[in-house]
Amino acid sequence: MKKLLVVAFLLVLCAWLQPCSAADFTPAQMKKMGVFLSNFTELGMSTVDHRDFLDPLHPENAIRFGIWHNYINNFKSRIGRCDSSCPYGSLRIDSKYVTESIQKYLGFKFDKHQSVNTDFITCHYDGKMYHFEGADGETNPYARVTSAKKITQGVISLKGELYNPEDPKEVMGTFRAEISPATWKGKESWHLINLESQLN
């Protein structure tokens, strides 16, 4: 009887602490986690840390994510055409959408809007809109989560594969990531902590 009480106590303690065992995530949740990470990998951001986006001296990392995320995923609803006389590019996006995307996926309010000129993005900020030129480069991988585990309160450790979105059977590498649970407009979501990939 005493042994049974000890076992029961350990099981309750383990459940309360959560990190004692792998957390139960449904296949549907793990699929959504893969979609979440794919918002970074599809931009060529296969190895990143959330601190890369918080650096006040390098706001171009967050701006790059905010613009290209919307270019790929929200082109019809958020990307507009500049008039032919615009010297900064044929496309534009309201900075509020850049701010929103950064907050949704990274969990912080971005306010360092400015013009940027890097190898990854060139854009002009006019005080409200970003003006830029579109680009369609090589196909970047998507993420498929194969393992998800709560390691501490508020941190989920993920492992999985990077695959070719044009041929999902083609594995292009593997990854490890950490994310934190969040809610976005009443729905389950996450914020990126870090992502580390090994490409084949």
Structural class: alpha+beta
Summed over residues and divided by their number, the pLDDT gives a mean of 89
Q: First CA to last CA: what distance?
A: 54 Å
Poorly predicted runs of 5 or more residues: 2-22
Strand order of the largest sheet: 1-10-9-8-7
Order of helices and strands: HHEHHHEEHEEEEEEE
Characterization of the model:
This protein has 200 residues and is an alpha+beta fold. The protein is 33% helix and 35% strand. It contains six helices and ten strands. The chain has helices at 2-17, 27-41, 50-54, 60-73, 75-78, 95-106, and strands at 48-49, 80-81, 91-94, 116-117, 122-125, 129-132, 142-152, 155-164, 167-184, 187-199. The strands form two sheets. Strands 1-10-9-8-7 form a five-stranded antiparallel beta sheet. Helix 4 crosses helix 6. The longest helix is centred in the N-terminal third of the chain and has 16 residues, at 2-17.
What's a concise summary of this model?
This protein has 200 residues and is α+β, with helices and mostly antiparallel strands.
Topology:
Elements: H1 2-17, H2 27-41, E1 48-49, H3 50-54, H4 60-73, H5 75-78, E2 80-81, E3 91-94, H6 95-106, E4 116-117, E5 122-125, E6 129-132, E7 142-152, E8 155-164, E9 167-184, E10 187-199
Antiparallel strand pairs: 1-10, 2-3, 3-6, 4-5, 5-6, 7-8, 8-9, 9-10
Descriptors:
disordered N terminus, 10 strands, five-stranded antiparallel β-sheet, 6 helices, alpha+beta, 200 residues
